[in-house]
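Q: Could you fold this chain for me?
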Amino acid sequence: MSTTKSAPKSPKKVSSSQEKMAALGLVSDFDFALHLPLRYEDETQIHTVDSLYPGQSAQLEGVVENVAVNFAHRKQLTATFRDATGKLSLRWIHYYPSQKAQLEKAGLIRIRGEVRGSSMWGFEIIHPKVSKAGETLPDTLTPIYPSTEGLTQPVLRKSILAALSRVQLHDSVPVAIQQKYALPSFSQSIHTLHNPNLGEDTHSLMDKTHPAWERVKFDELLAQQIALHLAREARAKLHAPKLSVENSTLYQRVLNTFGLPLTKAQECVLAEIKQDLQRSFPMHRLLQGDVGSGKTIVAALTAAMVLQNGLQVAIMAPTEILAEQHYLKMQKWFADKEINVVWLSGSLKAKEKREVQAKIQSGEAHLVIGTQALIQKGVEFAHLGLMIVDEQHRFGVGQRLSLSKKGEDTQHDIIPHQLSMSATPIPRTLAMSYLADLDVSVIDELPPGRTPISTRLMVNDRRDELLARLGIDCASGKQAYWVCPLVEESEALQLQTAVDTHHYIQEKLPHLRVGLLHGRMHADEKAAVMQAFATHQIDILVATTVIEVGVDVPNASIMVIEHAERFGLAQLHQLRGRVGRGEAASVCVLLYQNPLSETAKFRLKALYETNDGFEIARRDLEQRGPGEFLGLRQSGEQMLRFADIELDSETLDNAREAAVVMLNDYPQASLEHMQRWIKGREDYLRS
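A: Sure. Below is the predicted structure, expressed as structure tokens.
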């Protein structure tokens, strides 16, 4: 008797909607509860054509006439909509071939969309949403949620409502704190935001000033502040080398080799660092200073104090050219002082890399300078006492964590001190919100002898006029940078390339020496070009943004930035800071191509109006947001979803105050609240 085996059961298929929701981070009911609307649409009433105004989000019922495919400028579908009070135009730039026939026999329909045009010339709605007329109108505002391709609002809305019917939205903030800051209940706030009643203030819901929004933003900021306080407490419990820094002979010898007096701001910062190094828990300090303020010598003197105690120091920089600049300076300042300064980068040959790694592991290498090669497998330190991370926001958060953890792993119970440096000043509100577990030092004055930089805007049509002027200035002994955004031609961006510009300037100014520097050159080639420019064997250096930070040639007094409209604000400020380092009056010319976007206008106007790095940082934050500003964007983590640290500064102050009370009086509730909002992302706040 034969038996037939039943076919194995196929695994249960996950619907594509579920997969798309999971990609948005929507897994648990609580995830859905916190997936709050981007905006709201009012579908509770029917408008009439005679009541419309430009910019209005309107919903109308009527019939469609004159449906046609129009070929005037580009192929598009057009129609006339009519109700009892008047007519307006409809237009679809993207449409399905069957859409024309559907509209022609649609009869009475309901349309929704943004009204454009004017009462004089006629109104228009582009890509209106079309549905059946006569359907029951909702009695609340309709939430519009963040979504992804293929995930419709009705599907998302249905899932969120289902989750809200199941989830327990208990309040993680104690009643006393709710009362002190007049907070509505958490559950009430979440339900209001998903299903606002008709009586709610529509304007405050839209601009996120409604009490329900304020409660959500308070909770989010409170969780962040609790995490930062706990990070600081955790660091205070860790152990680090307690160093002897007074009367350091190596410190004094490096200072003597530097040969210039320190500014009061530099002396003040070094005093703060000395205090940190004498404690038994790790320094976690951010050193801020505008372009050219003298952060590198502060880093060198800090390194000297640690090296004097027989420990290693690592300096990590984001680009090879910046790391190499540090290496050359440190070699000069630590020359003949029995300190072995080594260089480690990805461009080293395998044999050279192994030799350097062996010296680092044995302790023979005292001061190690390099790029992210320092965090690669195979790099082990013998006695790492200090990590210095330059331009820390240029590294992804994961890279910064890797260096920190490499130090922890090699030191077992003792972890190294950490000094981060940034020439992009962090605005106060950003520091309060994201960097509360760091000690922040600021070098707020420039060394004597630095000349103010004049910034000029010039349209690209005047390029040859600029070149003629440049030819005269460089023939008289001045040196110039000419920065381009790309190395190779890109049809999409149509930007002038560094290679082409180099040839062009050579042809136009044959009597001058024109050099070329870009990121695809070998390290030795780059070093040779920079050395030639530093010793004035090159008059004009055409370069990509590899010269953005750390390059110091005092005789260079002219900076030309081609297609300046394509650069970020902080990047433009950094590039401008490559000049103004000597006695000659310096100028930065921003060459731009019309037409300019509003964003480009904002950036160029900011550069033209101020040289103040803190003001530029404030404007940059306003435009870019904190994630990108701090290098958090690369982590893929969105640290604040609802609060805006500039607009919600008062809420941030309240949350900081409440976090202290929570941790002291309600420690368990504090942990629960932090987990609700941060879910294991605490490390990102600490990097």
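A (continued): The radius of gyration is 31 Å.
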